[in-house]
Amino acid sequence: MNYIIIDIETTGFSPTKDRIIEFAAVLIDDRNQEIGAFSTLCKAIIPPKITQLTGITNADVAEEQPFEEYIEQISEFLGGLPLIGHNCFQFDMRFLKRYGIGHGNTVIDTLVLARKRLPQLKSHSLTSLVEYFKIPHTNAHRALDDARATKELYLKVR
Predict the structure, then answer these.
(1) Does residue 37 sit in helix, strand or coil?
(2) CA distances from 115 to 54, 87, 133, 158 (A)
(3) Which of 16, 111, 124, 127 has the smallest number of Cβ neighbours within 10 A?
């Protein structure tokens, strides 16, 4: 069965106050191969601490549309497929559900899976886990690269 790996970058941690600045979704087929992707930057005012973390600047998003303009496109891409993300129960899905995205989808969180499978690890952050499993991950805190790393992590901890 096909599934989708998701990741977002935001202006902060509050799904009610902060904004999505980058969204990525990677479509995976039943052989666990990437067969499609949707990725976009979104217009928002980006605090300096977020630019420092993600590398995304206000200049990068100045000509982009706000996240709301992508809702229909994202919803169509996701369809009713299962969604997989890292820390997505506490983070990504809280933001996406604010916009009505993902309410009917099954959601699998690789953070939960990793904590069950590897309780001995001190950290279950995406960065720590990709290092532990030696998963290539060149641009941490960029949505598309994080989604692709999460796919590889999912294959290790499912």
Answers:
(1) strand
(2) 25, 11, 14, 11
(3) 16
Catalytic residue among 86, 124, 137, 141: 141
Q: Are 89 and 11 in contact (CB under 8 A)?
A: no
How does 47-57 read in b/e, with b if 16+ C-beta sit within 10 Å?
eeebeeebebe
pLDDT tens per residue, range 51-94? 999 999 999 999 999 999 999 999 999 999 999 999 999 999 99
Strand bridging mode 83-85 / 107-109: parallel
Q: Which of 57, 21, 26, 59 is nearest to 40 (CA)?
A: 21
DSSP per-residue codes, 138-150: SSTT-HHHHHHHH
- CA distance linking residue 15 with residue 99, whole number of Å: 10
Residue 141 a catalytic site member: yes
Contact 69, 63 (CB under 8 A): no
State whether residue 71 is helix, strand or coil. helix
Residue type, 113: L
Could you say which residues of the chain have pLDDT below 50?
Answer: none
